[in-house]
Amino acid sequence: MRSNAINPNFSVWVSASAGTGKTKILIDRVLRLLLENKRNILCLTFTNAAANEMEDRIYSTLSKWAIYPEGILVADLEQLAQCVTRENKDYLTRARRLFSELENLGLNIQTIHAFCYKLISSFPTEAGIAPNCTLSECKELHSIIFEKTLHNETVQDDINIIAAEFDENKLSDLLYTLCIKRSALENNLGYIKDKLSAPDKIHDLQSETIEQIKRLAKILSEGSKRDQSYSAILYDWCNSRKSSVPNVVIQVADTGTQKKRNMDPSVSYLDDNKIENLAKVFLKSESYEKKSISSIITKGALEKFEDVEQMIESIQNALFTHVKDINSYQIFGRTSSLLSIFKVYVDLYNSEKSKNALLDYDDIINLATNLLSNPGYKDWILFNLDQKIDHILVDEAQDNSISQWKIITNLCNEFFTGGDEKRTLFVVGDVKQSIYRFQGANPHLFNYMQQYFHTKTGGRDWVSCQLEKSFRSTPEVLMLVDRIFNNFREEISFNDNKIKHIPYRENDQGYIEIWPLLPGYEEEEQQALQIHLTQRKDYVVKDRLLAQAIAQRIHNWLNEGRILVAKDRHIEPRDIMILVRQRNVLVDYIISELKKVNVPVIGRDYFRIMDYIAVQDLIALAEFLLLQANDLALANVLKSPLFNFTEDDLFNIAYNRKEQSLWEKLQDYQEIISNELNYLINLSQTKSPLTLFTHILRTGRKKFAARLGLECFEILDEFMNLVLQFEHPSLQAFVQWIKENNPEIKNDMQSKLNAVRIMTIHKSKGLQAPIVFLVDTNTVPRNSENILFDATEAPFWCGKNSNAYCNQVKREKKLEDYNEYLRLLYVALTRAEDELYILGKEPVQKGSWYDLVIQYGALYERKKLYLQPIFKEKVEVLCMNANYPSIYKKRDYFDVPVISPPSNLSMSLQHVTLEPGEKKPVSSTGMTDENAGMTKRSIGTTDSYARGLIIHSILQYMPKIEKDRRKNWVRKYLDSINTSEDKDEIYSKILTFNEKYDYLFDLEGKSEIPLSGTIDGKPVLVRLDRLCITEDKAIIIDYKSHHNVSISSSNEIKKQMLIYKTLVQEVYPDKQVECVVIWMEDLTLQSLI
Question: Residues comprising the binding site for ATP?
């Protein structure tokens, strides 16, 4: 099957289940094409990371082929192509040349967005864009455009209608959503009106119906208590009509942009609950279906009046039609108002983009589609591309949108028309892993496009194959996956074919453990003027209990040296992945609890900086410093951890202050705090935002941590990173920028840091781990979108109104959402290589992941374990492979679980106070600088420094090189540089160093770490040669290549190490910090301080 899939003479469609080697088969296909002398290859990937990984692996393979001995090369090529033999010298020669000829092979690996951007940039005139257009997400434009839209005179009536239901923020979100779904403009109001069956006119209820209601009210007034209560509602409605004009006709706007704003009384009835209350008597509250007669009138009254049943049915029919028309009318009116505003919004948006020569990601897809489908340009454009495209490979095809499929079909439509040249298409994907509908992915198209291309080829030279052998997971994990999802074949793969995963690791043991649900606790609501609940010792937070149980389990594994059975080695932090469905407070708790027990963790994979209260508090402080009359900002600052005001404290200041501002009153109330704020006001007016926030967080970090937990350090570090990156010296500009853009922070979850990874399942796509915790399993997602989009992406703003078509669309969307929820579970479960732990908390919703795992996981074994602090005693857990070995082996000293330095350690801005007489900032070379606020390593260009620079550079990278490769690597490194220094002497020196101090490289650590802080109010930036972290120590290593060291220089070095030690101690307050200087001249080691 695989040999056919990589055969360059066939076009191939591959359905590859999780862990079956999808990326490898894609790379093998490219290598086989190159080996067969095929050129002009275009590989389209879903992400830049995938493109980079694919490119690296191809280049790595080709570079090895170039230098392999013949025997190894033949063996490698035989695995790839059976036609290759030792006698076939042409293949061997070609394989060795591929690396050197790479530039001329016509191999292009990129995302589809990158391809489209390159395409339209090559043909700007045909695409209708400026030649210098820049690709941008254009997020910063939306706040500007929204402000202009709000003040546009042509849509003020529409805005007034919208304002009755939404504030500015929600309207901004709605317009942004529509901007993403750009096709909304293509649907005119006529289409929406027809789908809603919205009437042109709405009449008041007929006089005959009104009389019937009056008569029924009188009849019910003589009946039971329930009858009398309904009678009161009917009388109330009749009386309310006396002030209204009967039989009023409302002229609904036509499908253009003109609207008449004279609202019909009947519409206002629904808004003020009068018609709604009337409808509740006769119709069901949500569906507006007719109620049974017995639920409207009692049997006695019904028997007393013979015609009352017919009269009620008549009222129900009239009222049902009336309410249906009103609902349709209001949905149409609301939607048309929104689209009127959006038309202005998108016109301004496009104008602003054009003015700034910007294109967003939707633009490039649409422009490229237009270019490739335009019969006047298409052939000429394809002919004039930098390279002709003969072979197309598409990765992650299940996540393509319909627009992206249009581009692919336009590129390869000519492939199947016959001709002298063999041109091929290779598509790989897994519809079971399609989880990006919110980005426009359409999983239904995966199977449809397979059939489309099969028809195009007429079945000639066409291969469809299914990869089922999983190289990733153990049999236990795959068995659970098969058991669950064979109950949902149509839902996740859109066909009824059996879902089967064949384990490659059939002899490896795996383990699955399902914890009992975290019991429900009655959680109190936070009351005003009450001590915060989290400050009470007896207060239980369910999510924190779950986080503590996870952290304790992981800590015990690492601390006691648990062995990962299938890999026969100790478990490392990097082996563990914790998956959540969405980012929530549970993630913060898990990060906090892991840090408390000294387990290294890469926290949030992605977040927006302004979503966190610590940053909101800092920005509120900045807003107050800019404008002291901003009472709201000051109130927020005072209640923040920076000042810890209680509700009573704030009330005492705010109450009865008359014309005084809160700031004026505070100065009379609290001298110490007002003096501190006055100092900050002066600082904000004379210093940069960097200096200001560095000063604030000098003590503020600990205050935030005391209330918000240690997890806030990551947020504060990223905030300071943004402050450093922001080039404008104005605090006002910084505040406006960060509030309008709410920058995204992304962590690299594929980094080599030895740390536990916590991420959403969407971000885990393409990743894997030996041990996976799935912790967010007990709820089913609910659709909370304000706008409903049908299959054509036409918008319907339903609000509280009901409509038959909208209800149908809602049901379809709910089903699609749940099916994607199932596919998300498939992705989550298949991230696990060896062990899988499934957790949840009460209550469990029907159809949730936890429910499905319990219901469809077949028979589980049972055993008892401690799960503290959730349960005090041993509890029963469900598991697969209950006899899974639990082996522990104590580590050696240099093999203990270690804490990696934070990836953003350079952003750990701390305050440093020196002893009297030590006032000068010290650079990392040991020299002082009277004037510099920021210092850095200063290495001259003279020969004496050149030798030191080379040595430092080698020592920086050596820890990353395997021990048995270091000798050859150092020689190659020295051969690759141009220097007048004695390379043999340096080579000998480095090898001697490696023999003597290689144990230092065995410690977990990082080289060349920038670290910043302040000394007497002045920022200082230093760079550590190497920092190693063990369980209880932080070891600073500094290399010195001086030939002669004077007494004064020695003192300067001691001062330098004091700076290093103080900064590192602030980052790791619970560890003993040691400073080590290694003198490279005689390879002696000196411990300082």
Answer: 16-23
